[in-house]
Amino acid sequence: MAPKAWTNLAAAGLIVAAVLAPYRARAIEVKKDLYNNSGPAGPSASGPAKENPIPKAAAQQLSDTIASESDSYLSDESEKKSSGKTYVDLEHAKFLYLPTMKAGHWTVIAKLQAAEYTPSKSGEGKGKPTGKQKILVFNYRLDGSKWTEVDQPKWEDVDAGGTAAAANK
């Protein structure tokens, strides 16, 4: 049991670190990608980069909320791996969030994208990648100073073109 608890704690730490450490840089990159018609490979928009619109305290609270909520999904995937079922490696997930203003409230779609694996017969290591990517999508709204879940988190498949399609998992 100790290794499983350590793995969960380490994964939660990685998720929080991924959210907190490069927080400002990611927000700027996301905004550039969203508002720049030339795309990531093209020239950047002229003028200074815009700051992240969400207050730091609210961003920290969102990070804590996502880390806490994703812990149960991390446990589920760890259980699948230990029982020999195909699993998603959330411990090494890429984090992305997209803040938008809707009806006077900030809403955030946060995504954790990771590769899917078939565990090895010996149960050691990651196993064999299936070649598929899955995204765990969280949707929150900032009501005053509290984040409210808009929708239940859901899994999406990533198609070959890199876009997500809803998955029933």
Task: Write a structural description.
This protein has 169 residues and is of the alpha+beta class. The protein has three helices and six strands. Strands 1, 2, 3, 4, 5 and 6 form a six-stranded antiparallel β-sheet that branches. β4 and β5 form a beta hairpin. The protein is elongated. The N terminus is likely disordered.
Annotation keywords:
169 residues, alpha+beta, six-stranded antiparallel β-sheet, 34% strand, disordered N terminus
Order of helices and strands: HHHEEEEEE
Percentage of helical residues?
25-40%
Based on secondary structure, the structural category is alpha+beta
Instruction: Compute the number of helices.
Output: 3
Give the low-confidence spans. Answer: 1-49
End-to-end gap: 26 Å
How many DSSP-defined strands? 6
Radius of gyration: 17 Å
How is this structure best summarized?
The protein is an alpha+beta fold.
